[in-house]
Amino acid sequence: MKKAIIKSMVLGPVATNCILIKNSETKELLIVDPADQAGDISQAVTLLDGQPVGILLTHGHFDHIGAVDDLRDLYDIPVFACREEADVLEDPELNLSAAWNESCSTHADRLLDDGEKFTLAGFEIQMLHTPGHTHGSCCYYIPEEGILLSGDTLFAGSVGRMDFPTSSGRAMQASLQRLLCDLPEDTAVYPGHESTTTIGHEKRYNPFA
Predict the structure, then answer these.
(1) Which of 18, 58, 101, 102 is most buried, taking the most CB atoms under 10 A from its CB?
(2) pLDDT-based confidence at 113, cuts 50/70/90?
(3) pLDDT value for 196
C-alpha cells in the first residue's frame, strides 16, 4: 500500500515546484527543491502535520535553493544533492543567482553518487544522476511509491533548458533516454516546473524522446 502524501507548491520568481512528501505512517516529511518563501513552506508543513527529516535538491539553480538554508536551520535537517552539483550550489555565477537579483550560495550536507540508494522518511530512494540542465542535475526515484522527482531534467512534453553554464544537450539526451527506457511506464513524474506527467506519456509524446 502506498503511503506518500504529496503536496506541490509553486514558489519563487519563475514558478518553481516545491514538493512536500509525507509518509502517512510515520508523519516524516521530505522537502524537495525549496525554491523560496521559507515561511510559506513551513506553514504548509504544519498544515500537513509533518515532521521534516531532509531536503532533496535536484540541482543547484537559484530558483530551486532559495529557502534551503532557512529550512535547514529551522528544522535542523540535512540537505541532499548529487556530488557533481556541489560547485553549482556554491557558485552564484553557476547557479545563476548573480545574474538574477541577489547572489546566493549553499551546500549539501550529503553528496550522493549516481545510483546510490538511501532511506529517508521511511522511503527507499534512489538518486539518478541526470546531467544536461546542469552537470550535476539529478532525479530521485521512489520505487515503492512509483514516483520520480525529475527536477528540470524531464517536464511534461519537454525537457530543461540546455543553454546555461554546465549544461549539455548531448548529456540531456542520454539522461532522457535513461529515464524513459529504465523506469516503469506508470511512474508518476513530478517535475521542477509546471504539471505532473508519467513516464509512459512522455515515452509516447515528448518531442525530445
Answers:
(1) 58
(2) very high
(3) 98
- The answer to whether the beta carbons of residues 54 and 30 sit under 8 Å apart is yes
Q: What residue type is assigned to position 30 of the chain?
A: L
What is the Cα 41 distance to its own chain's centre?
A: 15
Q: What's the rounded Cα separation, in Å, for the pair 112 and 58?
A: 11
Exposure string of 171-200, with b = 16+ CB inside 10 Å and e = fewer, is: bbeebbeebbeebeeebbbbbbbeebbbbe
Q: What is the mean pLDDT of the segment spanning 103-123?
A: 97
CB 65 within 8 A of CB 55: no
- 49 backbone φψ class: left, alpha, beta (φ>0; ψ -120 to 50): left
Distance of CA 172 to the CA centre of its chain: 16
Among residues 61, 54, 170, the alpha carbon closest in space to that of 112 is found at 54
Lowest mean pLDDT among 3-17, 95-109, 124-138, 171-185: 95-109
Q: Which amino acid is present at 183?
A: L
